[in-house]
Amino acid sequence: MNNKLFNFCILWACLGFYPSFALSESIPGGVAIIAVNDETRPQVFYEDKKVMVIGNPGAWQAVVGINLNAKPGLHQILIKSSQANKSLQFTVIEKQYKTQHINIKNKRKVNPNKLDMERINREKKLIETVKSNWRNIELDSLDLILPVQGRYSSPFGLRRFFNQQARKPHGGIDIAAAEGTPIKAATAGIITNTGNYFFNGNTVFIDHGQGMITMYCHMNNIEVSEGEKINKGDIIGSVGQTGRVTGPHLHWSVILNQTTVNPEFFMSSVDTETEH
Ligand SMILES: [Zn+2]
4, 7, 46, 121: which is deepest, by most CB within 10 A? Predict the structure, then answer.
């Protein structure tokens, strides 16, 4: 039995959950699904951030995004219900991600000047606000489609060095595709932000509800606008090479409780769903 499968089984046995919505693996950058048996719908918090809750009375599941920088060991969620508040513990298992070295020709994208830094800090605040949006809706499915067909040029979680300098780990998947290739919405939602950002280039954020947000970066053109409601598979724009890039690709992130998690946990039916 490989390690990943082994971890799944440990979780199944310990937590008694049934992964009807998403796969889970309690690792940095992963997703922990934790059973909450309250009758009324609880509110769940992890590191003071509101957490997605799915399921039914008596059989709720907290779907917890775990930060790439999370320390292995015991973590806890806080459960607030009409009866009482309580906490539940879960274990984050260590995961070693590979290292990646990238050479960027435009040196300002690695060592920005003072004006760039002012722009970056403004954008960072705005992006944090977009990522913290919460829509209280029921979710029927957490199944996502791959937004672009193509080669994974950089997987999730890589420990990154740009021009030999350490930077944040890779909080998404890079899919290499020709400039102009259409990008599809991973699932239904509302466009909560579009913009041109220093590092991310032309970017779209889609809010799917309960803190699940997808982000599409380095786009060539954007074909949606803020406030627009979209369906799964709708075209939101096309692949480009705007922002900090070495070539045309889509950087795609999935955000849960304001943290980026590996999108692969939500893609159980990639092969069939991406064909339309
Ligand atoms: Zn990327």
Answer: 46
Instruction: Tell me the pLDDT tens digit for each residue of 225-257.
Output: 999 999 999 999 999 999 988 899 999 999 999
Please tell me the distance between residue 97's alpha carbon and the centre of ligand 1 in angstroms: 15
Average pLDDT over the chain, rounded to an integer: 88
Contact 123, 197 (CB under 8 A): yes
Report the pLDDT value the prediction gives residue 21, as an integer from 0 to 100: 58
DSSP code of residue 25: B
How far does the centroid of ligand 1 lie from the alpha carbon of residue 249, in Å?
Answer: 8
Long-range contacts for 8-15 (Cβ within 8 Å, ≥24 apart)? 15/90
- Is 211 or 14 the better-scoring residue by pLDDT? 211
The backbone torsions φ and ψ at residue 49, rounded to the nearest 5 degrees and listed phi first, read: -105, 140
CA of 64 to the centre of ligand 1 (A): 22
Question: Ligand 1 centre from 161 Cα, in Å?
Answer: 13
What domains appear along the chain, each with residue ranges and CATH number?
A: 3-92 (2.60.40.1590), 99-273 (2.70.70.10)
**At 145, phi and psi to the nearest 5?**
-100, 155
CA of 105 to the centre of ligand 1 (A): 17
Q: What is the pLDDT of residues 57-66, one digit of tens each?
A: 999 999 999 9
What spacing in Å lies between the alpha carbon of 158 and ligand 1's midpoint?
10
pTM (whole model) above 0.70: yes
